[in-house]
Amino acid sequence: MTEHTATPWEKDYGNTYGHIKSLGVEGHTPTVCKYDWNIGNEMNPLFSKEQKEANAEFIVKACNSYESNQQTIKELVEALEGVVSAEWEGNTFDVFPEFEPVWNKALEALERAKGGMR
After folding, report:
1. Residue 42 pLDDT > 70, yes or no?
2. Residue 71 lies in a domain
3. 1, part of any domain
4. DSSP bridge pairs for 48
5. Has residue 69 got a pLDDT over 80?
6. DSSP annotation string for 54-104
7. Which residues contact 97 (CB under 8 A, 6 or more apart)?
8. What distance in Å separates the CA atoms of residue 35 and residue 20, rounded to the nearest whole number?
9. What is the pTM assigned to this prediction?
10. Domain tally for the chain?
11. Which run of H or of E encompasses 51?
């Protein structure tokens, strides 16, 4: 799989508007993607300027938090594995039933972060 452009990303960096830029490329700030305020606003109002800006902010926040979220989920799974594999009499989820849905969600989130689930 091809690697994504280095993070952090920033919306409208410097004097550029309508661009999401990478600040993680040493000596450069390449445009990662463009969101044009004018497309679809007059003839076909798909999204307002405000919606496009909010979408760009969401993309930047999601991309910038991706690696730390993935690491946190991995650590959560490892911590829960320690509890799950501990020397309990019976199933850990019988002792701590509230762990099972959290465990399953953490495993699913980690798999999605790796690109395995949608």
Report:
1. no
2. yes
3. no
4. none
5. yes
6. HHHHHHHHHHHHHHHHHHHHHHHHHHHHHHHTS--SS-HHHH-TTHHHHHH
7. none
8. 8
9. 0.65
10. 1
11. helix 49-84
